[in-house]
Design brief:
Elements (H helix, E strand, L loop, with lengths): L9 E3 L4 E3 L21 H28 L2 H13 L7 H15 L9 H13 L27 H11 L7 H14 L10 H12 L7 H13 L6 H32 L1 H4 L7 H11 L6 H23 L3 H13 L10 H23 L5 H27 L5 H11 L2 H9 L7 H7 L4 H17 L1 H4 L6 H9 L3 H22 L4 H4 L2 H17 L14 H10 L5
Pfam families: Terpene_synth, Terpene_synth_C
Protein name: myrcene synthase
Pathway: Secondary metabolite biosynthesis; terpenoid biosynthesis
Length: 562
């Protein structure tokens, strides 16, 4: 039997009870906070009709701007519609406007010698896959190759440059300089007191959370509050944004109620007490991946998958002994409900529930008239791969072994669980997705990049707590390369930044010709929720009060005031 130092669960011979290395996870912070919502159906239906009317008005604005608007008018309108969170209603019109701008201005044209407009055009075009050149910003450099000092007073332009810089790829050296320059001069807060309050609020928020890496619903809620105070606001856009946000909040709360009922029915919280009770956060992750109404089943499956990932991760990291963990691994490999009989009591509930979720998937496919056995097959295979890697890590963890960093990396990217969330997130897409799942089987670059972000940003945030219980990724790196903790953290941060650049590159055409943009956006959004959850290297998933709580309050708990 392993020694106490190994972290291996010990047996108390007097009580004949295993002493397990329990992690001291914070409790659920949402108990009794989500009260039932009472909806006046007549008012709700009236709002739905108003939304449809306003959508047509906004569609008319977009079409009119395409016919006779200036470039900057088009850019501002598209940006406002997108930041208000209503662009999903107008994908066709927005794509047409941006395609028109791209054809007119080409990949590297400065807009009116204006930093704000040039950076805005660059950001919007890149966000939509147009491979515009970052050389457009050379116009704003001085003879020494540095950004001109005169730009430091243009806070609106600097904010636009700052947001654009987050769309950089490996080849965009000038955007590295742009980000540093813009950040430095936006942080000089003397002028914040004298500028319009809406701009000051946007700058303060952007320095905390960049737009490109933010969760779309969180960013929309924030921008609605800022835009409401803007003297130049368009009341039609604002009204549609608020009504649409409210309408979606009601839908999302209904889905959250389904997840809560499922959790209560399974008794996962009461019968698996060692695990983090994070069902609200799990749903929020699904909501962060896609918020639109048509993705309801995708959110439900994503949330359920995240609940299982959390429970099984905690089982392997903080509760089971190696014999138990091996038994669970073998049962998952066989994927047969009869295998539950050979598992410890505390594992049976999770195992049976996971198998039942796959049966639920197949039943839902049948209801939808979808023939998607390949989805269920891929989902099960990814669970098998995940549990195999989890078992490998647990052997290192419990025995305090320090594997070579490359060995750790290969297993740890799998246990980031993004290879499970990928099929879960895409399972109920309305489009034909058999080719998408063939693509997923090859571990595409964008999925691997999102997984790297998930693994290494988590490793940094959870290092202090996990090193008390066993082997960590940072320790593997320090040992393999004989570097300090500070140097290892810096390297992990570099890996994360490089992965972001890979994602940005994969979102540009012609990469988007290989796979629909709708599919690729899933992996961008999965990376975004990581950036938000682990902000400032804090583990906002294990302790939601550190980071996630205010976002969940804004998006789910507190209904927007109409």
């Amino acid at each position: 039997m392993a020694t106490e130092k190994s972290g291996y669960p010990q047996t108390n011979k007097q009580a004949d009870v295993k002493i397990r290395p329990l992690a001291d996870f914070p409790p659920c912070i949402w108990t009794d906070r989500f009260k039932p919502i009472t909806i006046d159906k007549q008012v709700y239906d009236m709002h739905a009709k108003e939304i449809e009317m306003l959508k047509e008005e906004v569609r008319g604005m977009l079409i009119k701007s395409m016919k006779d608007g200036t470039t900057i008018h088009k850019l501002n309108l598209v940006d406002t519609v997108e930041q208000l969170g209503i662009s999903y209603h107008f994908d066709k019109e927005i794509d047409s406007i941006l395609h028109q701008i791209f054809l007119q201005n080409g990949p590297s044209k400065v807009v009116d010698d204006d930093l704000y407009a040039t950076a805005l055009q660059f950001r919007l075009l890149r966000q939509h896959g147009f491979n515009v050149s970052s050389s457009v910003f050379q116009q704003f450099l001085n003879s020494n190759g540095e950004f001109k000092e005169t730009l430091t007073k243009d806070k609106r332009g600097l904010l636009s440059l700052y947001q654009a810089a987050y769309l950089r790829t490996q080849d965009d050296t000038i955007l590295e300089e742009a980000l540093s320059f813009a950040t430095t001069h936006l942080k000089c807060g003397e002028e914040l007191e004298t500028m319009p309050s809406s701009l000051a609020k946007q700058i303060k928020h952007a320095l905390e959370q960049s737009l490109h890496r933010g969760v779309p619903r969180v960013e929309a809620r924030h921008f609605i509050s800022v835009y409401e105070e803007d003297e130049a606001k368009n009341t039609t856009l604002l009204r549609l944004a608020k009504l649409d946000f409210y309408y979606l909040q009601i839908l999302h709360r209904k889905e959250l109620d389904q997840i809560e009922s499922w959790i209560e029915e399974l008794k996962l919280v009461s019968e698996v007490p060692y695990s983090r009770a994070r069902w609200v956060e799990c749903y929020f992750w699904g909501l962060a991946t896609f918020f639109e109404p048509q993705y309801s089943l995708c959110r439900i499956l994503s949330a359920k998958s995240s609940v299982f990932i959390t429970t099984i991760d905690d089982t392997y990291d903080a509760y089971g002994d190696l014999d138990e963990l091996k038994a669970f691994r073998d049962a998952i490999e066989r994927w047969d409900i009869k295998e539950a009989d050979g598992l410890p009591e505390y594992m049976r509930k999770t195992y049976i529930a996971l198998i039942n979720v796959v049966e639920w998937m197949d039943q839902e496919f049948a209801k939808q008239g979808m023939s998607r056995s390949y989805v269920s097959s891929k989902y099960k295979e990814e669970w098998k791969r995940y549990v195999r890697a989890s078992y490998t890590q647990s052997k290192w963890f419990l025995n305090r072994e320090l594997p070579a960093f490359q060995d750790y990396k290969e297993a740890a990217i799998i246990t980031s669980a993004y290879f499970i969330l990928a099929p879960a997130s895409l399972a109920f897409m309305k489009m034909g997705i058999e080719e998408v799942f063939d693509w997923l089987a090859k571990d595409p670059k964008i999925v691997v990049a999102a997984s790297k972000i998930g693994r290494f940003i988590n490793d940094i945030a959870s290092y202090e707590s996990e090193k008390q219980r066993g082997t960590t990724g940072l320790e593997c790196y320090m040992n393999s390369f004989n570097v300090s903790e500070e140097e290892a953290i810096k390297k992990f941060e570099e890996i994360v930044e490089d992965a972001w650049k890979e994602i940005n590159e994969e979102l540009l055409m012609p990469a988007t010709d290989t796979m629909p943009r709708e599919i690729l956006m899933v992996f961008l959004n999965l990376a975004r929720i990581l950036d938000v959850t682990y902000k400032h290297n804090l583990d906002g998933y294990t302790d939601p009060a550190l980071v996630l709580e205010p976002h969940i309050v804004d998006v789910l708990l507190d209904l927007i005031v109409l």
